[in-house]
Amino acid sequence: MSVVRVREHVNPLSRKYQQAIAPPDWQSIYGDLAQPLQLDIGCGKGRFLLNMAQLQPNWNFLGLEIREPLVHQANDWKTDLSLTNLYYLFCNVNTSLQPLLQSLPANTLQRVSIQFPDPWFKRKHQKRRVVQPEVVTILADFLVKGGEVFLQSDVPEVEQEMCDRFTEHPAFQRTAPTWLSTNPMPIPTERETSTLERGEAVYRAVYIRR
């Protein structure tokens, strides 16, 4: 399984990423469009979803990623495995999330994961972080009642900021007052595995759509 090398960070506020993408023909992508959908925002290389799609064939999976070469590579991998419940899209979530979710069948979005997003440490760059209030509002509009949002990061201030934004929205309720000690997903990301192997902490939280 070959791996392409790309820039680690891409500025989502650049002009080239401000145009919302046209939604694809979902019927031609998924074998069963009525299956519940998990959306992975900032899916990176896509291996987490690649494994999830094989483990849970009764779910559909959609990965959104702003680094286009990674998307092409991930779709090649899913094609090689003949997976009809998985797709990756190149887009800027902050401009394309709403039209994409609007184009999907109603009440299919049941799970959202946002894992180890770019931290953008410098204060002047923090507006580039993916979890903005507008993203939370869009997810509240399309996630089914009882649907889950899973957040995790190895940067405590980034995880806390994501949690603060979901806590501030009346549609979401956190499932536990403290960080989760274990990952509720059946498969870890590569970043999670490497972080834990170094003996470093991972901060996790789950929110439920009220």
Précis, in short:
With 210 residues, this protein is α/β, with parallel strands linked by helices. It has helices at 26-29, 47-55, 68-80, 93-103, 133-142, 156-168, 190-197; strands at residues 37-41, 60-65, 86-90, 109-115, 148-153, 172-174, 203-209. The protein has a single domain, classed as Vaccinia Virus protein VP39 (Rossmann fold).
What does this structure look like?
- The protein has 210 residues and is of the alpha/beta class.
- The protein has a single domain (36-209), classed as 3-Layer(aba) Sandwich (Rossmann fold).
- Helices cover 32% and strands 19% of the residues.
- The chain is built from seven helices and seven strands; from the N terminus they run H-E-H-E-H-E-H-E-H-E-H-E-H-E.
- It has helices at residues 26-29, 47-55, 68-80, 93-103, 133-142, 156-168, 190-197; strands spanning 37-41, 60-65, 86-90, 109-115, 148-153, 172-174, 203-209.
- Strands 3-2-1-4-5-7-6 form a seven-stranded mixed beta sheet, sandwiched between helices.
- Helix 2 (47-55) links the parallel strand 1 and strand 2.
- Helix 4 packs parallel to helix 5.
- The N and C termini lie far apart (41 Å).
- The model has no long low-confidence stretch (mean pLDDT 92).
